[in-house]
Amino acid sequence: MAALTAMLLSAILLMTFAMIAVTSAQETPQVYAPDEKPFGLGYGQWSVKWWQWSLGIPMADNPAGDETGEKCAQAQNNPSVWFLAGTFGGPVTRSCVIPQGKAILLPVVNNECSYLEFPAYKTEAELTKCASSLIDKASNLKVTIDGVNIPDLNKYRFQSSLYNFTMPSDNVLGLASGTTDSSANGYWIMLKPLTKGAHTIEFGGSILDVSTTSNVNFATDATYHLTVQ
Q1: What percentage of the chain has pLDDT greater than the value 90?
Q2: What is the Cα–Cα distance from 188 to 101, expressed in whole angstroms?
Q3: CA distance 177 to 170
Q4: Are 191 and 104 in contact (CB under 8 A)?
Q5: By C-alpha distance, which of 58, 80, 77, 47 is closest to 162?
Q6: Which residue, 136, 183, 210, 225, has most beta carbons within 10 Å?
């Protein structure tokens, strides 16, 4: 009887250790919490850095329009964070080499409004409402890291403060070059530095607005095959 009991206990322990091992292998990747301030800045402040980076790159070299990943390293001058780009609509698969030790900021779904784009607006409140109105209609949000879903993405929506950016000629907005004030809203995820080697990141979402004043039907789906080295 004692021997049978010992065998049962051993089997239970082995099953427990196996379950722990599986859980550990499938645990959610390291994501900075919504209220954290990685490298001294909150998510809303990092979104400003991302927009200034993205809108400051000419269309010909802009990572958001890149179909392969060859533009991935454009203007990646931040010493702590690597920026990933979404798309101007539709799916894309990119391959990219990034340095080990950098956090990764990715836009799940985002939007910004500036005075250059909307010259009728005169106040920060108007820009803020403009930026958030489309994000209010965002759905189908997803972020997966090496096949593991990031949960509770609704907690990762952030509003920026008023900021400025400078657009070059041949910019992604198709406007005259210049500097303007803007407000941004969207869903963001910042990953802690990934381990050396190959990783796959997929993110995106959709926005549908069929109101009488707008007819927006937008979806983005970006897949990155990253090599961290």
Answers
A1: 83
A2: 20
A3: 8
A4: yes
A5: 47
A6: 183
3-class state of residue 90 by DSSP: strand
For residue 6, which phi and psi values (nearest 5 degrees)?
Answer: -65, -40
Rounded Cα distance between 77 and 125, Å, is 31
The token pair that represents 147 in the structure block:
């096949």
Express each pLDDT in 85-136 by its tens digit.
Answer: 999 999 999 999 999 999 999 999 999 999 999 999 999 999 999 999 999 9
Over the chain, what is the mean pLDDT? 89
Token representation of residue 104: 């990764």
What integer pLDDT is reported at residue 154 of this predicted model?
97
Asked whether the CA dihedral 32, 35, 36, 38 is positive or negative, the reply is positive
DSSP state for residue 217 in the 8-state scheme: E
Q: Which residues contact 175 (CB under 8 A, 6 or more apart)?
A: 116, 117, 167
Q: What is the pTM of this model?
A: 0.86
Count of other CB atoms within 10 angstroms of residue 95:
14
H or E element that contains 158: strand 157-159
Residue with tokens 């060859």: 70
CB contact at 8 A, 100 and 76? no
